[in-house]
Amino acid sequence: MLLEFDSDQRLWQETVRDAVGKQCPASLVRGIAEGRGEEDASIPLWQSYLDAGWTELTDPQNAVELAIVLEELGRATDPTPLLATLSQFAPLAGDRYDAAKAGAAVYQGVSANWSREGWVLDGTDAFVLDGDRAEQLAVVTPAGVFVIEPGPVRTRRRDVFDPVLHVAEVTFDRVRVQESDRLDLEPAAALALVERSRHIALMGMAITMVGACQRILDLALEHAKSRHQFGVPIGSFQALQHKATDMYVAIERARALSYFAALTIAADDPRRRIAAAMAKASAGECQTLVFQHGLQTFGAMGFTWENDLQFALKRAKAGELLLGGAAEHRALIAEEFDATRI
Predict the structure, then answer these.
(1) Fewer CB atoms inside 10 A, N or C side of the chain?
(2) Taking the mean position of all CA atoms in its chain, how far away is CA 145?
(3) C-alpha to C-alpha distance for 107 and 109, rounded to whole angstroms
(4) Is it the case that residue 342 has pLDDT exceeding 60?
(5) Half-sphere exposure of 168 toward its Cβ, with a 13 Å CA cutoff?
(6) Ramachandran region of residue 241, left (φ > 0), alpha (ψ -120 to 50) or beta?
(7) How far apart are CA 292 and CA 149, in angstroms?
C-alpha cells in the first residue's frame, strides 16, 4: 500500500481545504454556538456540500478521498451532518442511500419483532450522532438493518461537550415498519455489512479528531509566535517547543493510522478491523495529549469563551467519547493479538 497522496489526492485536499476555509470560518461556528441568527447557519453550508457532490463519496474505494474531506471538516469544527451521513449512515444504507438527504445510524438498543402487520421496533439508543436532524435512519437490530424515515421515532437532542455537535437520544416505541424497509440480506451478509460499516465509522471519527487536533496545534503555534514574555516570543522557550513537538508527533501518528485504515477499507483488506481500532485508539490518545498541551500553551487565555481554541478542543474530546474510547480499542487490539498467538 502506498502511504502518500498521489497528485489527484493532493489536488483534492487543496480544493477541499480552500472550500472549507471559505465556507466554514470560525465566525460561522461561533455564531451557531452562540445561537446568533434566526435560521440555522449550518443549513446553507450543508447545501453547499450537496452542490459540490461531497455527499456522493460513498463507494468504499473512495475511502481515502472521504478521509481527506472529514479531516478538513474536523479541522474547521464542521456543524453539518456530513460526518454522520457519510461515515455512519451511508455504509449501512447501501443502495437505499439518498445523497440529497442527511442520515444517521442507530447502532444499539433496538429490537425488532415480527407481527402480522409487519415489524415492530422497540428500544432506545442514547447517543446517536445527528439523530435529531436526520432525514433517514439506518437501524441495526438482531433481525437485520432497517432503513426508515424518522417520522414515528422520538428524538431528543442531548447537551454535550461540543456546542455545535448534534447528539440525540433516539427512542422507538412500538414503531411499525414493513418488510420492505429491511435490507434484503442473509444473516451472515448483514453481519458483515454492519462490521464493515463500523470500520468506516471508526475511521471517519478518528480522522475528524485528527483534523481538530491539527487545528489546536495550528492555533497554539500561532499564539506561541505572537505572544511575548520577557521581551521574546514564548515559542522560544524550550518547554513550549517540547510540547509543540510532542503534539506534532502524536498528530502525525494518528493521521498515518487513520489513512492506513482508509486504505484497508478502500482495498477491502481483512486488516481493516484492526486498522480501524488502531486509528481510533491513536486518535483518542492524540487528543488527550494535544488537548492538555494546547491549553497549557495558551495559559489562562485558553479558558476564555472568546478564544476559538475551545471549538477544536471540544470537537476532539467529543470524538473520543463517541464510538468507544482509546482504552476500549486498545483492549480490542490486545485481544486480536492474543488470538493470533493461539
Answers:
(1) C
(2) 21
(3) 7
(4) no
(5) 23
(6) alpha
(7) 41
